[in-house]
Phosphoribosylglycinamide formyltransferase (Azoarcus sp.), 213 residues
Amino acid sequence: MKSIVILISGRGSNMEAIVRAGLDGVRVAAVISNRPDAAGLAFARAHGIPVAVVDHKAYPDRAAFDAALAEVIDAHTPDLVVLAGFMRVLTETFVRRYEGRLLNIHPSLLPAFPGLHTHRRALEAGVKVHGATVHFVTADLDCGPIVVQAVVPVLADDDEAALAARVLAQEHRIYPQALRWFAAGRLSLEAGRVRLRDEPATSAGCVVPPVEG
Ligand code: GRF
């Protein structure tokens, strides 16, 4: 059984998708928010998951906040820390502490559109495909080794909200998938590179009926 701690800042729909997926071999030890008013906390509480708030406003700087956050995380001794709409930039010290044990989801096909307002920027750039990325976190923002991506089309009449919704549906699919791999012991970071042990062979292609006569 792998224990995970999920960090959120707001709505928490990715956290919800992970919890609802009921992943074999995954125990959500805690949900932690840096905002006391994060909507996702109610869902976690209602599902009996321990919640904690580490309010970044209560700390003088990033280092102090990250140290307090790490203390709360470590009390749960997680195998993996899952950033799910966690909107704080983390210090290098924090990132190094959880090297290979820290995943994030970003709403673009990285390395395109790191940072904020990805859907607006995708529309402005006129790209024809967009998507989401699950990646290991490194000290460089939205730049860590890529675990899995999902691609969606950008349609002619899309606005930011329509595109965001299409991407979000895929986020809710690929984050549980990445965690399934992790729980099965198939996903790791080795020497700074993602290692995903091979998928078992499944498809045998079409079944061609024997030709008679
Ligand atoms: C998601 O689009 C995630 O990729 C981004 O922020 C959004 C958070 O949504 N980092 P939610 O809180 O998981 O609903």
In short: The CA atoms of residues 66 and 94 lie 6 Å apart. Helices lie at 13-20, 40-46, 62-74, 92-97, 118-125, 160-183. The beta strands are 2-8, 26-33, 51-53, 80-83, 102-106, 129-136, 146-153, 187-190, 193-196.
